[in-house]
Structure prediction request, 65 residues.
Amino acid sequence: MITPEGASIMKQLREAMLECTVSRLSSYNQEELAELDDCLIRLNTLLEKFAAAEDIASCGDFPEL
Prediction:
């Protein structure tokens, strides 16, 4: 279970990541953003195979957080 302090830290981290991402993306023009969008869509399709894997036990044991 996450503590209120941990939840606050996660919120701050998400906000900082969003701010940084928006700042970096502002340096791209519309054509470059469209190309990036196409690449991310293709990558997302490929990564769906991870979610479809039924044998998750083969990934190893992970500690409880």
About this structure: The longest helix spans residues 30-52. Residues 48 and 54 are 12 Å apart (CA to CA).
